[in-house]
Amino acid sequence: MNLLGIDYGKKRIGLAWVQVGLDVVLPYGIVNNIDELVTLINKEGIDKLVLGMPLGLDSKENDNTRRVNEFAEELKKRTNLPLEFVDERFSSRQADSMGGDVSRDEKSAMVIMQTYLDKQ
Fold first, then answer.
1. Which residues contact 34 (CB under 8 A, 6 or more apart)?
2. Domains along the chain?
3. What residues does the YqgF/RNase H-like domain cover (predicted)?
4. 120 residues of the chain, pLDDT tens digit each
5. Element (H, E) at 6
6. Alpha carbon distance 54, 48 (integer Å)
């Protein structure tokens, strides 16, 4: 089963990929919009989506949460794939502490995916 971790942002969408069983999270690039994302999902045979949910520090929803929910609804409609949410609070901070040449958006998606795997 191929899982795609998604860090949705206003400007860019960071991606991370993992194949269940191997459980090694890899950076998977950046796309600029939902059209590019849907094309990639269909081309790569993704089976499940894992999307970071930006809750406030008080665990409450905010404008970003609503924006991600709208994005998730559109993504579910267009891909018909199962989608799970992961609390992404502090994922950017964790991403910033990671080394390497991978973009911050991809690193955030990797953190989101690893958080999901750790809870399974």
1. 13, 71, 74, 75, 78
2. 2-118 (3.30.420.140)
3. 1-95
4. 999 999 998 899 999 999 888 879 999 999 999 999 999 999 999 999 999 998 766 767 777 889 999 999 999 999 999 999 998 866 666 666 676 788 888 999 999 999 999 998
5. strand 2-8
6. 19
